[in-house]
Amino acid sequence: MILLVDNGSSSIINLIEKIKFIDNKIRVIKNTDVNQVEKIKGIILSGRSIYSAETNRENFKIIRKAYNSEIPILGICFGAEILAATFGGTLQKMERPIKEYRRINIIKENKLIKIKSFRAFESHGYKIFRLPRDFERIGVSGVSENEVIKHREKQIYGVQFHPEISGRMGLRILKNFIGICNLKKGNC
């Protein structure tokens, strides 16, 4: 089962629909229900539309619990930012919020994104500025040097863009993540 953490993204309905299209074994929870991180194969952290210190704290708990349990994680937009912050990275406020399609270039081979370049929808006001020590950059864009990040040893990914509203390529990325999760041993 995939656990989708709803952080209040304006595109959460799109994300739920895309995941259900790929694999209907999904549980959607609010970010305050950290105890649900049990007997699952993967976690997707959604974006958010409003800043909340409580959302940050609850996501931090979910990420730590998943990390310790070897559960794959995909952070989308805010989800990627909170992943970076949880492990010691830093964020930077952008000069102006971005809300447009941008070219993403993949610079390192990985299991999540298997194509070198594509267009994706971005909608965020912060970007990952400094990576945590245990993470590596695997994708860049014209607005972020850390557009796509990955933990060096675990199946933990972050994308600053929104695959749920990025067409066929976004759907393929979500499908690849669910494939990574299905390789995890254990029961749903």
Strand order of the largest sheet: 2-1-3-4-9-8-7-5-6
In percent, how helical is the residue content?
A: 25-40%
- Reported by name, the CATH topology is Rossmann fold
Please identify which CATH superfamily we are dealing with. Answer: Class I glutamine amidotransferase (GATase) domain
Explain this structure to me?
- With 188 residues, the protein is of the alpha/beta class.
- The protein has one domain: Class I glutamine amidotransferase (GATase) domain (Rossmann fold, 3-Layer(aba) Sandwich).
- The protein has four helices and nine strands, in the order E-H-E-E-H-E-H-E-E-E-E-E-H.
- It has helices at 12-22, 53-68, 78-86, 167-182; strands spanning 2-6, 26-30, 42-45, 73-76, 90-106, 117-130, 135-141, 148-151, 156-159.
- It is globular and about 40 Å long.
In short:
With 188 residues, the chain is of the alpha/beta class.
